[in-house]
Amino acid sequence: MSAMLEELNSIESQALASLKVIADADSLEQWRLAWIGPKGRLKGLLGSMKDVSPADRPAVGKRLNEVKVALDGAFEERKGSLGAARPQATGPMLDVTEPGLDLTIGRRHVLTRTIDELIEVFARMGFTVATGPEVEDEYHNFTALNIPPDHPARDPLDNFFLDGKHLLRTQTSTVQIRAMEQSRPPLRIVSCGRVYRPDEVDATHSFMFHQIEGLYVDRNVSMVDLKTTLLQFAHAYFGAQAEVKLTPSFFPFTEPSAEMHIRMNVRGQWRWVELGGCGMVDPNVFEAVGYDPEEWSGFAFGLGIERIAMRKYGIPDIRWLFENDLRFLTSV
Known about the structure:
Elements: H1 3-20, H2 25-35, H3 41-44, H4 57-82, H5 110-123, E1 128-129, E2 135-137, H6 138-141, E3 166-168, H7 173-182, E4 187-196, E5 208-218, H8 223-238, E6 243-251, E7 254-266, E8 269-281, H9 283-288, E9 297-304, H10 305-313, H11 326-329
Parallel strand pairs: 1-4
Antiparallel strand pairs: 2-3, 4-5, 5-9, 6-7, 7-8, 8-9
């Protein structure tokens, strides 16, 4: 008989003998680690298999498996008789009958909800959604919108230029240009997205905010169509008692131009609130995109989404929308 077989027989007899006197779970765990654990004596013999002669290896391998099965079975039987083989918990007891903490369910951010609501309102009026890049070139951000090179709006101090020709867009009107370049009229779109201006941050201003831009191009479009559209929007979004007032203004890309005010209920008081600008598309803008201004006419409007959300939900400070304070996010 080879020395390996003798060693296996010795391990089996010694291990079984010592297992009989085990009286508690801690001692049983120590026995497992010493004899059949990853660093136990039985596993230690595996490294010696290379020294067994080829003729004896079948018999030694068979005996090794028999000893392993015998010791594993004896261990499980002893563990069952002791009730447990793992150390008892020493930490605080868990009272499973104590009420747990309520699970919180996530919700969409108030700006996301507002954008979805606005898109849904205008979709009912036949407007589709268009998108465009936030990093724009000067042509789409200024030139095609009838903003000349010497206009104050192009001042580098009033824009976030990335290089000499590209900047973070200052308005979503850039999407109108791209939409008209890609499609022939009639055209009816809205575009929502972030815009960037180096404004000083306070309760009503931010260097980054959101706009919704609308554009309608067809034959014989007039200011009557513009005000009707804005009035329908106001009634659908702020209620049937909301009113719309357009006051003359100036924008390079619309002529005539107007500021849009809506009379709405703000925290229990009816007041006029400015939400954005609008007007008839300037003929120069149509010419820039290849539309014949003698055949086509249209209107455009741009509304501040933060301003709408703040008025509708009674939010006094625009900074709350971007501070990720759970007290605010779960209250609106």
